[in-house]
Amino acid sequence: MKNIIVGQSGGPTSVINSSLLGVFKTAKDLKCDKIYGMVHGIKGLLDKDIVDLREQIKTDLDMDLLKRTPSSFLGSCRYKLPDIEGNEETYKKIFEILDEYKIDAFFYIGGNDSMDTIKKLTDYGNSIKSPIRFMGVPKTIDNDLAMTDHTPGYGSAAKYIAATMKEIICDGLVYDYPVVTIVEVMGRNAGWLTAASALARGEDCSGVDMIFLPEIPFNIDLFLKKTGELLKENRSLVIAVSEGVKVKDGRYVCELADHVEYVDSFGHKQLSGTARYLASRVATAYGVKTRAIELSSLQRCAAHMTSRIDITEAFNTGGAAVKAALNGLTGHVITLKRVSEDPYMCITEPQDVHLIANVEKKVPLEWISDDGTFVKEELVHYIRPLIQAEIAPLWVDGLPRHLKIQR
Amino acid sequence: MKNIIVGQSGGPTSVINSSLLGVFKTAKDLKCDKIYGMVHGIKGLLDKDIVDLREQIKTDLDMDLLKRTPSSFLGSCRYKLPDIEGNEETYKKIFEILDEYKIDAFFYIGGNDSMDTIKKLTDYGNSIKSPIRFMGVPKTIDNDLAMTDHTPGYGSAAKYIAATMKEIICDGLVYDYPVVTIVEVMGRNAGWLTAASALARGEDCSGVDMIFLPEIPFNIDLFLKKTGELLKENRSLVIAVSEGVKVKDGRYVCELADHVEYVDSFGHKQLSGTARYLASRVATAYGVKTRAIELSSLQRCAAHMTSRIDITEAFNTGGAAVKAALNGLTGHVITLKRVSEDPYMCITEPQDVHLIANVEKKVPLEWISDDGTFVKEELVHYIRPLIQAEIAPLWVDGLPRHLKIQR
C-alpha cells in the first residue's frame, strides 16, 4: 500500500493527460492507496493545493474523456525550483508536505525545466536520505529532450501541423493569382515542430515549398531569392518557418519588426510576428498577395486530432514511471527507445535525470538540406511513425467532450 | 441527354466540394451527358479552361475523398461580371462558349458575389432568349446570404470555431496566473461566425467570456471595463472578436493600430490585427499576460472537422439545383428552409436570384445582448443543429487524404 502524488508542469501538449492517466491507472492497478494530484505542479504542492485523483477520475468514461482533454488537467506552472544551496528552506517545506501526505513516490510530467525539478528533488532527497522516489515523465511538443527517441506530445503536434499544412496548401491554390503563405510554427531553439510540415507532401499534396528551422541562421536574402524563383513556377507557395529563426547576428527575425517582447520567469522571450514580418518582405519584394498564419497555441491543444501512437506512448511512459518507482527506482526519467525501424517499435527505458535535465536536443544538422531551406528524407522517416493512427473525439452535441477538474 | 457545367467561386468552405459532388452525382444519376467543370469559375470559362468531371471523379472512393477535400476542387475566382449595359461583348463571349460546349444548364457554387454572376447571366440569357438555365448553389462560411435559413459551409466553420474555442479555453486555464486570450474570427460585416463561439459553453466548459460582433459599434472603453471586471473573478478570459468590428466613427478596430491594408477586386479590405491590437490594450491597462489568436483561413479549410449536417445539406443544395434546372427552372438559387425546430429539419427551396444577389444578411440585433458583449440563447439555439454529427477523414499514413484535380 503506497501513496503517490503526480503533477504536470510547463506548457501543455494534447496528450499530457494521457501520461497522467498512465500514472493514475497504473497506480490504481498496482493497488496504490492514495493517488494525489498537485494542482498547478510544484507550486500547488507548496500551497497544499492537492486533489484526490480517485475523486476526479471515477469511471471508465472519465478515463476515456481524460485522454481526449487538451491542456493540463491538473493545471501547470512555470515555477523553477531554486538551487538547493542557500535555499534549503524551500526543500524542507516540500519534504514536510510530502511527509504529511505520507507520499512514497512523486511523479512530474513535463519538459526540460520540469526534469530540473525532479533532479533537484532527487538530489535533496538523497542528501537527507529520504525514502521518497522521484520520477520524471517526459512531455513536450518541442521534442527537445535529450536521451529519448522523441517526447510524448510531439507526435500529435506533428500530426496537427502536417494535416493543417495540407489544408492550407489546398486553400492557397484556390485562386488563379499568386499567393505566398507564411506559416509560423512553434519552436524556440529546436525546429522539430516546423520540420513536421514536411510530412504534408504526398500523393495528393505537393507539400510545403520551404522549411526554415532555428538550427540554421536565417538568411533573408536567400529566403527572398528562393521565394522569387519558386514564384516563377508556382501559383501558390506555402512556407513553414519556426518562430525561433534568428539572423546571423543572433537577433530573432521577429525582432527585426516592431514587436513587444515578453520574458517569462525562465527568461524565455515570447516570440511572434516572424510570419507577418516575412510576409511583408515578400509582398514588398514581389508585389504578390501574402498571408501570415500563426498556428499559435492550437499546436499544443488540438486534442481533437491526436496521434494514437502518441496517446499510447504517453500513457505507457506514465505507467512505466509508476512501475519503476514502486520497484524502488528514483531520480530517473522514463524515455522512449526506438528498438526497430520499419516496422517502428518503441519501448520505455528509464534514464538518469541528471543526463536529461536542462539539456536541449536540436534537429541534427545532417537532417537539414544544405542550403537550409528544407529538411531531408531522414527527418521525415524519423517523424512519420509518430503521427500514425487516430483516436476520435467523444462527440457530444456536436463538439468534443472533455473532462473538467472538480474543485 | 443534357450537358451541364459547374463552377465554384469566392472564398472556399470546408464543404464547397460536397456541393460540387451534389451537382456531379445528381447530374450523373439523372443521365446527363457531359458534366463539365470550370477551372477558377467564370474566369476559367472565359479562358475555356474546362475539365470533364467524369474524368476527375471516377470512383466511389473519389466521391468520398471529394467530400473531405478542403478548398475549391475546381479552383475559384473573385472575378465580378461587369454590368450588362455597355459590356455586351463579355456576355456574348460567355454565351458563345456555352453554345460551343452545347451547355443546357450552368451551376455556380458561391456566395453573394457569385449569385450576382447568376443574376446577370440569367438577365442576359433572358434578353437574348437563350434556353440555357442558370442556377445558384449557395455557399459561404459567412452565413450572410438572404432568403435562406443558413448557408452550406457555415455549420462546419461554426463547429470548427466552437470546438477550437473549447480547446483554447482549456489551454488558457493551464497556468495559475491571469491570462487574457483574444481570438479573432472571420466576418467582415456579419457576426455569424464569431457568434458560433458561444456554442463552446456547456457541461464541461465555462465558455468564452465575451463576444463582439460587427453588427454593434465596438466600444473600447466598455470592452476594457468589462475585461477588468471579469479579471477580478476569473483567472483566464477568452474573448471572441470579429475581424470586422468597427468603432463608432466607422473605422475598423484593426485600423487603429499600425496595419497594412489590402483591397481586393470587389473593394473589400483585408482585415487582421484586431486581436493583436485589443490584446495590447488589455496588457497595457491591466498588466496581465495576453495572447492574440487569429483563426485565419483554418476556419474555411479545416476539412478534417466538418459537420455532417452541413455536408449533407451542401450535397442536397447541389443536387436540388440540377433537378430543378433539368425540370426547366432558371434564375434561381437553392436555399435552405427550416421546416421544423426541435427536431431540426431543413428542406431545399428555390428562390429567385434577384432577391438574393448582393444582399447581406446580418445577425438580428435582438439576438445580441443589450450591452453588445455577448449573444442571446436564441442565436445559440439557431446554430446548434447546424454543427451536429461528424464525418471522419479518410486517414492515409497518418494524415487526411484529399482529392486533387488532374490537369
Instruction: Give the structural class of chain A.
Output: alpha/beta
Give me the Rg of chain A, rounded: 22 Å
Which strands sit side by side, in order, in the main sheet of chain A? 3-2-1-4-5-10-11
Q: Uncertain spans of chain A, ≥5 residues at pLDDT below 50?
A: 259-267
What overall form of chain A do the CA principal axes indicate?
elongated
Largest sheet of chain A: 7 strands, mixed
Number of domains of chain A: 2
Considering residues with a beta carbon less than 8 A from a beta carbon on another chain, report the largest interface and each chain's count.
A-B, 66 and 66 residues
SSE string of chain A: EHEHEHHHEHEHEHEHEHEHHEEHEE
Q: Just name the CATH architecture of the largest domain in chain A.
A: 3-Layer(aba) Sandwich
In helices, the fraction of residues of chain A equals: 25-40%
Mean pLDDT of chain A: 95
The CA-CA distance between the termini of chain A, in Å, is 26 Å
Beta-strand portion of chain A reads: 15-25%
Number of strands of chain A: 13
Oligomerization category of the chains in this entry? homodimer
How many DSSP helices of chain A?
13
Q: If you consult CATH, what is the topology of the largest domain in chain A?
A: Rossmann fold
CATH class of the largest domain in chain A: Alpha Beta
